[in-house]
Write a structure and sequence with these properties.
Helices cover about 50% and strands about 15% of the residues. It has about 290 residues and is α/β, with parallel strands linked by helices. Strands 3-2-1-4-5-6-7-8 form an eight-stranded mixed sheet, sandwiched between helices.
Length: about 290
């Protein structure tokens, strides 16, 4: 029996994880769907979500929340996993026992291959699709969530072979409601690209922060702050990203080391003509990448 078309305005959506991304998602969807269920193990986060009317229902236990909602008429139409990557993988393993009914499942994880592979093993009653919004801040938690966080941001979708048109429509309706811009990518290609554009910058920023003496703090200006900003991101989120995309990050890191070696060689040999050429090439490349 075919499922009816997805209609965001008539749908009940459960968001597991009410941190920066899940909380901002809830704020962006508020009033645009039939009901929002927020699930998070941190009780002060749930209290804030309810007191600020960010969600309609809140629970720390995904089992009671999902089963309780499913027992009602119509039940949950879509579950969005907005936790760190390792927690997403754990939730996908547990989802068949947490959720007895059929529904669409989407995630917001920063890596996709392992997540999509795990989604492929879900029972047929689930309709999965991978997702990754390219936005955020280094300051996490619901307290830092913003209704407009997703606005104009790329939102990457990595459908599975089994992903239905209904699930793809649901994802696109959510992206449109948030004001983001949808792009469809293969999961492996996603991870290769994001290793260079997101995960390597975090590693580089972390290395920069670590190599700068504490005594230099009063001399730090906007250049250092903008270059090292993402080093302030919680390791609890980024460790899982680096673990799940290890090979691609290593490839990107080796490329960076090669470029640093060229800079070091030009400086060591006092080949300033070569150094100027490298810097000019870098400026041109930066303009191409950011135009």
């Amino acid at each position: 029996m075919s499922q009816p078309d997805f209609n965001l305005a008539e749908s009940k959506i459960a968001i597991i994880g009410l941190g920066l991304m899940g909380g901002s998602l809830a704020l962006g969807l508020k009033g645009k769907c039939a009901a929002l269920y927020g699930i998070d193990p941190h009780l002060p986060t749930l209290e804030l979500a309810l007191s600020q009317h960010i969600v309609d229902y809140a629970d720390s236990d995904p089992t009671s929340a999902l089963r309780g909602a499913s027992a009602q008429s119509k039940g949950i139409d879509m579950i969005i996993l907005a936790t760190p990557v390792p927690a997403i993988l754990t939730l996908l393993e547990k989802l068949p026992t947490l959720m007895p009914n059929s529904c669409i499942v989407m995630d917001l994880g920063s890596t996709k291959k392992l997540i999509v592979d795990s989604m492929s093993r879900l029972p047929e009653r689930f309709d999965p699709i991978g997702g990754h919004p390219i936005c955020g801040k280094e300051k996490l938690s619901l307290a830092n969530a913003e209704r407009t966080l997703y606005y104009a941001a790329p939102f990457l979708l990595t459908p599975l072979e089994r992903t239905s048109k209904r699930a793809l429509s649901a994802a696109n309706q959510i992206i449109e409601a948030l004001g983001a811009k949808a792009t469809v990518l293969d999961a492996s290609e996603h991870d290769r690209i994001l290793a260079a554009t997101s995960h390597l910058p975090f590693v580089l920023a972390s290395a920069l922060a670590l190599t700068t003496p504490d005594s230099f703090a009063s001399f730090i200006g906007t250049g250092f702050r903008s270059t090292s900003r993402v080093a302030g991101t919680s390791s609890s989120m980024m460790l899982g990203v680096l673990q799940s995309n290890r090979e691609n990050v290593l490839t990107a890191l080796h490329g960076l080391q090669n470029e640093l070696a060229k800079l070091e060689s030009a400086l060591s040999s006092e080949d300033f003509e070569k150094l100027e050429s490298i810097l000019n090439d870098a400026q041109t490349k930066y303009q191409i990448l950011t135009q």
